[in-house]
Design brief:
With 215 residues, the chain is mostly beta strands. It folds into two domains: 4-135, Elongation Factor Tu (Ef-tu), domain 3, CATH 2.40.30; 146-208, Roll (SH3 type barrels). Helices cover 11% and strands 40% of the residues. The strands form three sheets. The chain has a six-stranded antiparallel beta barrel with strand order 1-2-7-6-3-8. A six-stranded mixed sheet has the order 12-11-10-9-14-13, with no helix packed on it. A hairpin with a 4-residue loop joins strand 13 (196-200) and strand 14 (205-208). The chain is elongated. 27% of the residues are buried.
């Protein structure tokens, strides 16, 4: 079975760059935006399934040609992941994005240059996927990227910490924050003004007004 590091080393002609090559391009970690996680292979031709945390799949499909793939924590603090066939790269590496298709809401199928078999695709399982900030849809005032909500600290208006944002669900009407609480079941908090009194992304926190049955 192919080790991901060996796969990367063998793909110089296919626009997949090693960590050293990436450093020479001047791509800084804080210039990369998280758009999802690879959850496994799709089919037998090297396609991968992406659990997307972007609400702009059409933009990804039509405007983005390069993505960056790395282990959990490759950008910012966090543990290094290991794929089933070897370690994922400790820093994101660039990969040419050939095709994007919608499998179901929140789940995309990616075709990547140089990843041609199911075994090769499986080496990317549990990897994080990023795009360069220059490739993202520009934000309007008071807008935010979905990935910016992940890991925010959630506290009440009384200053009591509730937990951290583990996941963001898109229901159509509004987003719902899934809050991981130590020793307790996850809480679901709708991202609406009646509940969320402050969304402080630079400060890394969400302040909520506790209502009956909310927590």
């Amino acid at each position: 079975m192919t080790d991901l590091i060996d796969l990367i080393d063998s793909m110089d002609s296919m626009d997949l760059m090693t960590e050293n090559t990436q450093q020479t391009t001047g791509v800084a970690p804080d210039a990369l935006l998280l758009i999802g996680y690879i959850i496994g292979a799709f089919g037998v031709r090297g396609q991968v399934k992406l659990k997307a945390i972007t609400d702009q799949p059409d933009h990804l499909k039509h405007q983005v040609r390069t993505i960056y793939i790395g282990a959990v924590g490759a950008v910012g603090a966090g543990p290094r992941s290991t794929g089933p066939y070897g370690p994922l790269p400790s820093a994101p590496v660039a990969c040419r994005l050939l095709e994007v298709s919608m499998h179901k809401p929140g789940l995309l199928i990616l075709t990547l240059q140089g990843v041609n078999t199911r075994d090769e695709a499986e080496t990317l399982r549990r990897a994080e996927v990023f795009i360069h900030e220059d490739d993202a849809v520009p934000l309007e005032a008071d807008e935010y990227y979905l990935h910016q909500l992940y890991h925010l600290r959630v506290e009440t208006t009384d200053g009591v910490e509730v937990g951290r944002v583990r996941e963001v669900l898109q229901t159509g009407a509004h987003e719902v924050l899934v809050i991981a609480r130590p020793g307790q079941p996850d809480a679901l908090i709708p991202l609406i003004r009646e509940v969320v009194t402050l969304l402080d992304i630079p400060g890394g926190r969400v302040v909520v007004q506790v209502m009956e049955g909310l927590l």
